[in-house]
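Lab notebook, bench 4. The sequencing result for the construct came back, and we need a structural model before the next group meeting so we can plan mutations. Quick request posted to the team channel:

Model the 3D structure of this chain.
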Amino acid sequence: MRFAKFLFLPLIAALVACNGNNTEKSTGQSAPDFEDAIEPTAYVVEKVSYSDTITVGVASATARCNIAYLKADNPDAPLIMSVNNWIRDMLQNAPDTIEIGTPLAKSIVDEILRSNRATLIEMNDFAEENNDGFLQYAEEYSYDIHPLALSPGFVTMLYESYIYTGGAHGGSYCIGQTFSAIDGSMIDLDMFKDGSIDKILALIKKGLMSQYFEVDSDKEFYNQLLIEGNKLPLPATSPYFTDNGVCFLYQQYEIAPYAAGMPKCVIPFEDLKPYFSDYARNIIADKL
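Done. Here's the predicted structure in token form:
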């Protein structure tokens, strides 16, 4: 199951100001050697950050991009290639001609600021024309990608963004994606057997009630939501493996008002065991 992601692409821009980047490495776990599967190579996680700010009079925009990505002796390993392609997809469908790491983070920040220059000029001109030059207008764009879980059979990456362009509050978005460490394939709803969705939805409802909303009754639960017919849908984005179970995450406004944040719950692997496909069971063999 694929999803429509929201990248909150800015409108316009300009370059001026400061930038910086840093790099650090941490050791990951090597994946297991499954029968009839290509043995995944050992990998490390490399982290890079890049930020910049542009200013036009009283208007400014700041953009930052943090990327933690997998590296290995063999850059063509299926897991590495699959994760890198996903990272580029999350970051404005960046072309594969841009190297993963600082070059990619810089290109994202530079493009955001470049494309927002006209907006800043317009806001500054408006402030000057209305003698409101003392007022400040500041936009913020933040993107973060990092591993959430590094397990022998799978890797889960997490994408998070926050965009503020004025008003009462900004907007956030979050996507998790699990990859098989065996062949790099992305795992979505196909982790579950056909015909199991209704039972899984019942577990999601129970998890949301106890873990997120902390309510005991159906009435209290549905009073927190903005859904018709009291029929809880699956999240628009794919479920993903964590270290302790499967996370089901709803975006802002998807089922609840902004004040409720992003409702989510983690269903333990053991509770979902009867519904996993054979392939998913192989991926999480050490968890069951």
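The first helix runs from residue 78 to 90.
Will bring this to the meeting.
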